[in-house]
Amino acid sequence: MTAQTNRMFKKILKRKDFFSPMEGELMRIDQVEDEVFSTRSMGDGFAIDFNGVDVKAPTDGEVIMAFPTGHAIGIKNDNMEYLIHIGMDTVELEGEGFELCVAQGDRIKQGDVIVKVDKEKILEKGKSLKSPIVFLTGEKIEVLSVGRYVKCMEKNIIKIK
Question: What processes does the entry annotate via GO biological process terms (predicted)?
Fold first, then answer.
């Protein structure tokens, strides 16, 4: 196997190992109310209507952005960069309902808790918990089972093209 073929093979394997970062109903990105996400202006992705406590790292990688409010985390690995945005307009809560468990520059492993969420507090404030996961490096996403309830760290929820 050539070095180039070997790199491509590793990239394909790693891309398939994207786990659900949270528990909830699986959605297409265009089902999110915020046009920045639904129109794919930041990139393609998917969403989960969050119904859990923890948000976990779906892959190994490096935290390249961690909003102090805890509502959004950017992660980069060898193959891609992606953003996990918890809820809609949750930046307005100024961190209330979120416990950020990582910092920019941290190396994380798949399954590490990156944010703890008090969903009741967020819902009390009238915010939606529909949470987009957006791929910032040009990947195209196919959601495998729209409307299905997924568990945190479940695999085979999306196909990355």
Answer: phosphoenolpyruvate-dependent sugar phosphotransferase system
